[in-house]
Write the structure tokens for this entry.
Amino acid sequence: MKKILISLVIIITVFSSCRKETKIGTTGFKSGPWRATLKVMDNKTLPFLIEVMEDQTLQIFNAEETIEVDEVWVKGDSVKIKFPVFEGYIAARFIDSVTISGSFIKESLNRTVPFEAKYGEQDRFDIISKPKYDITGNWETVFSKDTEADRYIAKGTFEQNGNIVTGTFRTTTGDYRYLEGVINKNQLQLSTFDGAHAFLFTAKITDNTMNGYFYSGNHWKEPFVAKRNENYELPSEDSLTFLKKGYKTLEFSFPDSKGNQVSLQDKRFKGKVVVLQIMGTWCPNCMDETKYYAEYYKDHKNIGVEFVALAFEYAKTKEKAFASIKRLQNKLKVEYPVLLAQYGTSDKEKAQEKLPMLNHVLSYPTTIIIDKKGQVQKIHTGFNGPATGQKYVDFKKDFDYFIKQLLKEEK
């Protein structure tokens, strides 16, 4: 840990003098494809693909997802890449014109993951042999099966075209976003990197089973098992979190970025259908949800619906937490209030203490829908984002229908 902290100090010092630098000018990255890797546990590498544009902005690719990155600075042989919305960034040096080496850093969590990128390489994983199996379809999955405290269920959904595999794992609290990889013979490799999460999945496949490991950065590893089951479904997301007996609504008062205390008793929420979002700016599923809610609010704010988000931040200071909130609001064009409910930790038990009328806070994000009379009508745990395909389409349809039914009710 001491070495990590020293490295962070050195890297931060290197870049403290270049925060006023403009975006890369006449020197910097060669435009075109780059293959990046992060060093995770067991000495394994997590690959992802980058395209450097002519204007020196970047695009990161995960299956159907394209992440636009426009915060890139170069000073001498040093480069810093800051990702949209999230705190994490890459600090590296040019080894030569086609290689950069450094670290992916999350300062608030004291996490540093070794990073490298090479120009001209376009394959996420090497294809070295024909696949023995086709894993297209649904897979009933259990992570950390033999460890009761960490055990949880998931649904794997995949499409395979030759060696190439895309898809995701859905859990009861959200999805693992866009996964992409290959099968060589009976060996599966999948990865994704979005500027916050760095995920790698490896597994041995038989016709109807998977046995493998899930790596998150270089700080977490857990086993998983899966079996083919086309009819498998997870429990309803609307049944996992609920109000304790005796409660009909929520009570809270948290500050906005201007220091104003905001509660459901405020005039803006009176007589309105209110969508309350429990989230964090560090959370990719929350980002997917916020994108949708920001768009929905923009289109429906004049017909009696209001949104409010409660941010539970792991940033170590209130100032840094509000800076992250402001960045999210600017990047995603969020017009509804995002309140700071907690900083210094994203611990769910601590979050539940702030909202004691809930049985628990099981997931970031969680959505609570409140009717015009101020009573809770639905609590939806997690979020099925665009990587889940039809599930995401169905969620948007159901959400819109439910809101419009509440809007028809009398105050």
